[in-house]
Amino acid sequence: MASSDVKLIGAWASPFVMRPRIALNLKSVPYEFLQETFGSKSELLLKSNPVHKKIPVLLHADKPVCESNIIVEYIDDTWSSSGPSILPSDPYDRAMARFWAAYIDEKWFVALRSFLKAGGEEEKKAVIAQLEEGNAFLEKAFIDCSKGKPFFNGDNIGYLDIALGCFLAWLRVTELAVSHKILDEAKTPSLSKWAENFCNDPAVKPVMPETAKLAEFAKKIFS
Amino acid sequence: MAERSESEEVKLLGMWASPFSRRIEIALTLKGVSYEFSEEDITNKSSLLLQLNPVYKMIPVLVHNGKPISESLVILEYIDETWRDNPILPQDPYEKAMARFWAKFVDEQIYVTAMKVVGKIGEERDAVVEATRDLLMFLEKELVGKDFFGGRSLGFVDIVATLVAFWLMRTEEIVGVKVVPVDKFPEIHRWVKNLLGNDVIKKCIPPEDEHLQYIRARMEKLNVKSA
To answer: What was the ipTM of the complex prediction?
Structure first.
């Protein structure tokens, strides 16, 4: 398939954009990466995602698909005969993957993001408590989903690995900024091992931002 | 449909007035799946509910062969993948992605914004009504030339958007502001009529009088002025 057939509107620092990039890598689908300039939105973006005006947007033969996890499922459905399955095949396992991916976006990531913005000690304590509860849930979810294998999806990374793993660089940046270990090997040993394996995956490495570069960027946008 | 063993058990923990619970009943009924319904008192949650949904502690929860599933959109997809008769989601990957997009939009944008109308007055309320209408306009445009969001028949988005048809639009009377006037949203009104022509929908939505009574009572409890 010609690479001009598949385009992705996004930005290197966005964890949500990382999701479809990993999925496209898993399926060996070449694509044109159209990077948005931070602080402004291109005509193409506004035209392709008039509802949310947000990245990522996948353009497949000029048809836009929006919302990162929906794009990942679309990639899995469309290039189903190529590469490993991104979602599990069993309906119950699929439901668990979707449930936890939604939890990550609605609760876990929201807590992580608020950590960077948290003001006083009380606020920070509250966020830490939220994140620790979340991590405990995810540690258990990992044990249940992985069934002894290295990833949520088993032998290969999949939907839920991608849904959580995309935040690892931002997690590290946050840990450095607040001087607090959010993902603690002592408290969540399985999740910590998983994080290491995820970051080393060949579909992930090329698109995971370097911590130093991301920290610089974070300083700029949060100042 | 494949033969199901007698031990197959489908149980739904729900609440009669909840749009999220009712949409599961619609899906199960569309597929001809028998299920046991367990009415939850959301002001006094059962230990079963807390055990089956420790993360959110909310209904609906579907239990299939002893395994619980929470979050209504996740449950709907599970139902569609487990019982293959009368598909809810389209087969085509692009159409499927669009259906998921609009369902998410209804729950995360329309529902969240529309909820804010209750309890607000004056300019603040006008602003929220305006914001809700802007969002609804996207749905209005989606319905042009179609009987349902799913095309000629009910689909995923229709089931999810019953929230708009039978909760948002029903409460207009009580809240005292016409959020979805027919002159601005003729397609949505036409779609609601189409929904009401469907036997499964008619069977699965809360009875109107009791529903309105319940909403009035809830608003009174929350000390919210109702019309």
So the answer is: 0.96
